[in-house]
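Observation: inputs received (chain + S-adenosyl-L-homocysteine).
Thought: call the complex predictor directly.
Action: predict_structure
Action Input:
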Amino acid sequence: MRPRRTGVGETEQIIKLLMVLRRQGISDNDVLSAIERVPRDLFVAESFASHAYDDKALPIECGQTISQPYVVAYMTQALQTNDRCKVLEIGTGSGYQAAVVSYLSRRVYSIERYRSLLTQAQARFDHLGLTNITAVTGDGSKGWPEQAPFDRIIVTAAAAEVPENLVEQLKIGGIMVIPVTISGNVQTLVRIIRQEDRVVREDLLPVRFVPLVEGVAKEL
Ligand code: SAH
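Observation:
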């Protein structure tokens, strides 16, 4: 793990980012302090580290992306976790979203289809001492039946529709936040609440995510 880019103005950059997020309507102080605690520069390649606190999505390996901080904050806020929550994340990617949620829940289970991304994310979790994250390589479109049910599910890749098997892995009263493709590359962030006798769906925000792809990725 390379050392942090500490230095000039890093704290200032984080404070600026928090102000940008507040201005855009992120009002949950617990979410903002979780964002403050996770050094996003460690989750991107060194060549992008100087942009780590810009409110922008950035490329990571395997053609994937680390989401824009606003979208991470928005999804985390919409997920309404608390320290008793068992959370499933699908699409570990860099591990940034999982790290943020780990400060706001009891345990995070995260699945990534690229082994190499997972290995790097795992190294970041170890380095930061985030011991309440369990991350594996696998096909997250099937959820994680052995660990189900979950209080919360967060999907960070766009699905064609809300996967029924994931809804089934939610506890009653559980919440899922998932980007769903409406048409072409138009996606909307959807919040699902599983109630005893029905499933409530709310469309929240237009977003742009890489697609949820079935199966574990083949890597050279
Ligand atoms: N949460 C990540 C965002 C990563 S982008 C972060 O904070 O950096 C979405 C990720 O979802 C990609 O890494 C992609 O490989 C992964 N993904 C796509 N389909 C998947 C699937 N079926 N199972 C697990 N991961 C998947």
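Thought: report the result.
Final Answer: Residues 122 and 130 are 9 Å apart (CA to CA). The chain has six helices and nine strands.
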